[in-house]
Amino acid sequence: MQRILITGATGQIGSELTLALRARYGGDQVVASGRKRLPNTAMKESGPFVYLDVTDQAALAQVVADFHIDTIYHLAALLSAVAEAKPQLAWQVNMGGLLNVLEVCRQQGCALFFPSSIGAFGPTTPPDHTPQVTLQHPTTIYGISKLSGELLCAYYYQRFGVDCRGVRFPGLISALTAPGGGTTDYAVEIFHAAVAGQPYCCFLGPDSRLDMMYMPDAIRAAISLMEADADRLTQRNAYNVTAMNFTPAELARAIHKEVPGFTISYNIDPVRQAIADSWPHSMDDSVARREWEWQPHYDLTAMVTDMLAALATDTTGRKTP
Ligand code: AKB
């Protein structure tokens, strides 16, 4: 039986991943951890929660030993826009935290899931159908930390045999938890405005096309990869995974079909626009599809319908994948 630790469990991915893993493996088997945000009621009541700062290696090692952990989903990280505002802190948390996690994995024999991002690509990467293996020269501190993280995970796999697996997530959209500090956050904020009957002012321009994914698909991607047959995996740094791509104008039109009074305007934030402009429009995820049967379930229409319904009712009662 797996004993799992999730770092950054109170964040956007962790809030849903914790509940999905507990539903799959049992509440006591999945230890959620976080540094700042309080766990929500569902997380508190469904299994153990510990306060943990991933930059404290001794505390991390202690939690892993105490709970007999054999698999870590390491989600604690600063997102792109916050990282750009605090680059030194971003390096300390994103890279220092990952190195600590990798060391504990090496010392205590744990497998590791590490989420990389479209941010690991840069302006010189082919933006359309971005290949699995291609030029990666990110220009943001977030992207540099994600690319370095991919390489460090691959190194720990080759050098020490740590079972590291990862994906490059696109922008993630969730009804349950706000993202907090990313460049793709507009794609979540817009739904909250629409459901509240308010107009939305977008910080990216109308034509900024980015890869996106609905959270239930992201959760399935993480769990499927960790359960995949190791012999079939050729990419130990990170698999491209995607589900859809759209611009703010296209997303607003899709919402408008279901919320006829909804309107969008634009007030471009130059920092986040520059970050978005450096990222791919659409990744080629055929390698993930081939090697571990990755397949998204939600396209733009299905995601919009589900998001609006989830936000209009009780989001805490949503189905898990
Ligand atoms: C962000 O915008 O920083 C993240 C990401 C795409 O990695 N959502």
What is the topological layout?
Layout: E1 4-7, H1 12-25, E2 30-34, H2 41-46, E3 49-51, H3 57-66, E4 71-74, H4 80-85, H5 87-108, E5 111-117, E6 128-130, H6 141-160, E7 164-169, E8 171-173, H7 186-195, E9 200-202, E10 210-214, H8 215-227, E11 239-240, E12 244-246, H9 248-258, E13 264-266, H10 270-277, E14 282-283, H11 286-292, H12 300-312
Helix pairs in contact: 1-8, 3-5, 5-6, 7-9, 7-12, 9-12
The site of 2-amino-3-ketobutyric acid (AKB) has 13 residues, from strand 8.
Written overview of the protein:
This protein is α/β, with parallel strands linked by helices and 321 residues long. Helix content is 44%, strand content 17%. It is built from twelve helices and 14 strands. The strands form four sheets. The protein has a seven-stranded parallel β-sheet, sandwiched between helices. The radius of gyration is 19 Å and the shape is globular. The structure holds 2-amino-3-ketobutyric acid. The site of 2-amino-3-ketobutyric acid has 13 residues, from β8.
Provide tags for this entry:
single chain, 321 residues, alpha/beta, Rossmann fold, seven-stranded parallel sheet, 14 strands, globular, disordered C terminus, binds 2-amino-3-ketobutyric acid
Quick structural gist:
The protein has 321 residues and is α/β, with parallel strands linked by helices. It is 44% helix and 17% strand.
What overall geometry do the principal axes of the alpha carbons give?
globular
pLDDT < 50 stretches = 315-321
CATH architecture of the largest domain: 3-Layer(aba) Sandwich
Bound small molecules, by name, code or SMILES, are: 2-amino-3-ketobutyric acid
Number of helices: 12
* Share of residues in helices: 40-55%
What's the CATH first level of the largest domain? Answer: Alpha Beta
Fourth CATH level, the homologous superfamily of the largest domain: NAD(P)-binding Rossmann-like Domain
Strand arrangement, major sheet? 3-2-1-4-5-7-11
Q: Can you count the beta strands?
A: 14
Cα separation of the termini: 21 Å
CATH topology of the largest domain: Rossmann fold
| Helical/strand content category | alpha/beta
The domain count comes to 2
Strand content: 15-25%
